[in-house]
Amino acid sequence: MHVSEIFYSLQGEGMLVGTPSVFVRLAGCPFRCRWCDTAYAWDFAAGQELVEGQIAEQVNLWPCRFVVLTGGEPMTDPDLDVRPGLVDLSHRLHAAGKHITIETSGVLFVPDLACDLMSISPKLTNAASRTDTHRADRFDSETIRRLIGTYPYQLKFVVESPQDVEEVRQMLDRLGDLDPARVMLMPQASTAQELLRRSPAIAEACKQAGLRFGQRLHLLLWDRQRGV
Ligand code: SF4
Fold it and tell me: From ligand 1's centre to the CA of 29, what distance in Å?
C-alpha cells in the first residue's frame, strides 16, 4: 500500500477530538476538493510502498491505542474499487488491540472492515473546483446508509457559510434516522486565522439548525504544519 505518512498526534475533529492517535495517511484520492488540506496525498503513488505488516510495525512504535486510517481517500483505489490491503490492515491493527477510525468521504461501501468509528465526511458543492472530479453522484445516500448501518459512525460536514446548512439538511433527509450527537458541522478553513474568523457564523447557524458544531483542534494548535 502506498503510505503518504505515519505520525502521532491528537485527533483534531469529531467525537474523539483531543484523543492521542497514530495517523496512517494512505496515498491517493480520486477527488480534487477545492479546499483540500492534503493535496500532497492525492497521488496514489505518493509516499512509500509498505506492506500491511510494515505499516502495523510502524504504528506499534507508539504506545497508543487509537489509530486513524486516513488519506487521501483510504477506502478506494483510483477506479473507485476497494483499496487492496485495506481490510487486511484493519484486521491486523484490531488484532493488536487498536481502536480504529476510518476517515472517508463516504464514496464506497466496504464490508468486513475492522472499524470502531467510520468517520464520514460527505462533500457539499462548496468543495467543487474546476479541476475537481466532483460529480453530482458523489453524494451517494445509499452507500452512506450502508456504512452507517454497518459501522459505528460519525458524520462531519465542512461548511463555508450559513447558506450551506440547507444543503446539509437535504443530505440528512436522504439519510433517514440519525443520531444527532453523531452529526457535526465544521467550518471550512485552511489556517487557524480563517477558522477563528468563520467559526462564530457557523456556530450561530448550528444553534439555529439544532446541529452540533465541530471545532478543528489541529488547525487551532498547529495551523498548517504537517505531521504534528
Ligand atoms: S475527498 Fe478528502 S482527500 Fe480527497 S480531495 Fe476531497 S478533501 Fe481532499
Answer: 6
Contact predicate 25/5, CB 8 Å: yes
* Grid coordinates given for 109: 461501501
Condensed to tens digits (0 to 9), the pLDDT of residues 63-106 reads: 999 999 999 999 999 999 999 999 999 999 999 999 999 999 99
For the chain, residues with pLDDT lower than 50 are 136
| CATH superfamily membership of 2-222 | Aldolase class I (3.20.20.70)
C-alpha cell at 155: 458524520
- Taking the domains of the chain in order of start, what are their residue ranges? 2-222
Element (H, E) at 195: helix 192-209
DSSP 83: P
Q: Distance (Å, rounded) from C-alpha 24 to C-alpha 18?
A: 17
For ligand 1, atom 6, the nearest C-alpha belongs to 33
> What is the DSSP secondary structure assignment for residue 39, as one 8-state letter?
G
The residue whose CB lies within 8 Å of the most ligand 1 atoms, and thus the one to mutate among 13, 44, 75, 105, is 105
How are beta strands 20-26 and 66-70 bridged, if at all?
A: parallel
C-alpha 179/C-alpha 117 separation (Å) is 14
Query: What is the pLDDT of the chain when averaged over all its residues?
Result: 94
